[in-house]
Amino acid sequence: MKIIVRACIISAALHFVYFSLTFLKGYIITKAYVPDVGKDESVYMLQNEVAFGFVGNPFIFVYSFIALAFTCFTIQFVFQKLTRKGSFR
């Protein structure tokens, strides 16, 4: 059970890092953006074309969490078996 909990914690930490970096990238891009209003006359149209977020399957994050936890569990299990006895006995 200890390996499963550790695998879930690693998966959660990696997802947190991924979402944090994605948020940080969006924040930096948003703060660094300087609109060029002088070229276009239709500022109203530009404001209507801005989209925040994304559209997709929200369960993809659950699936990726489970897949990453399973991968971490498998790696830890194999590593533990190899280091304890030297082979798969």
Automatic annotation (TrEMBL):
<feature type="transmembrane region" description="Helical">
    <location>
        <begin position="7"/>
        <end position="30"/>
    </location>
</feature>
<feature type="transmembrane region" description="Helical">
    <location>
        <begin position="50"/>
        <end position="79"/>
    </location>
</feature>
<keyword id="KW-1133">Transmembrane helix</keyword>
<protein>
    <recommendedName>
        <fullName>DUF4306 domain-containing protein</fullName>
    </recommendedName>
</protein>
<keyword id="KW-0472">Membrane</keyword>
<keyword id="KW-0812">Transmembrane</keyword>
